[in-house]
User: What shape does this take?
Amino acid sequence: MPRCVILLILLFLWVPLKAQDWDIWGYGKYLGSRITGYLPQEDALVDHQLHLRLNSRWYLSPRGTLAMEWRLRAFYGDLPGKLPGFKSYVVSSYPLTDMAWTLADEGSLFAYAQMDRFFWDYAADDWQVTIGRQRVAWGTTLVWNVSDLYNPQSILDFDYEERPGSDVLRFQYFTGPASRWEVVMQPAGKKRQRSLSLMGAFNRWNYDFYLIMAWQREKPVLAGAFSGDIAGAGFRGEFKASGHPRPVDLEETYLPGFVNLSDGRGADVQMTLSLDYTFANSLYLHGEILYNSIGVRENTALLAFQAQKAGLLSAARYSLFAETAYQWHPLVRLDLFTLFNPDDRSYILAPSVSWSAATNLDVYLIGLLGQGNRLSEFGAMGRASYLRLKYSF
Assistant: This one.
């Protein structure tokens, strides 16, 4: 472990003795799952997960805060021993240091601990500086945030509400109630993993706008987003334009002799539009569309990992999302959404129900039902059901 990380942890353990105030909170979760059709040689995969999250804030002064947040997860079942690369799939990776420690790795059991937030924040008058592992979120749409340069995340990763952080230096200067400038710098050992971004936020015509200029993956990036409403319906959109990905950007996912996302010479342009509306009886409707200029129209599953490496939210040319939800009872919410690829005709259907069973105790049941041929975007995902119990403290 790098010495600087050890020193920061020791400092964090010592600070409560000197700090004016501190706070700790978190939750514990159990997630059980059953998946069929995911691994061709297996009839069904049954797994269990225990997850403990601890969040800490130590208020060193009225303006300075030190934060540390941990994930401790234990997996037991079929996937740890049967899914190739399971460890790299579940443990978040960071360019500088992962700050992750394996606690157990034996056949059907895998457990680890990781800090996904570790930052110092200082605010004074109209400016704010945050240094360390933190969440930088600039998107406005609800499913696909193409303008989120640092932590694009799939809606299918429903069990990670906080989303991964980024090791960055962030400076914010507030010029008004709804306007600010931000500069974010991300260091890394490799040049292609470094980035520097400038974001300006402002409000016009009752809409919030974001404009972003960045240097990322050794290429210029122009991005933007907006959010407002049309006749009471939420209306949001985002775009991102950058240079075409190169084979080196795709790293170990590059497929010699096959179609790759680095093929072609055009710019990489991604756009999304979102519209949602809540009726007086609590019925909720939401639709969204994603366009990806370098996306493919067939054999999308072959390029799924390439899309992640290239910073894409999907390897498909077009993606559609539709959702309806209803507050059936003050403690019970019903939801149904679908992701659809109009080119290969594959889709995922996701019915769910959430129940606030008791104070600080929530029950969540969701199914992810994939349909399509094995090389389509969603056909190889199988059919899964999940039961989650969550206790917050």
Remarks:
- The two ends are 31 Å apart (CA to CA).
- The mean pLDDT is 90.
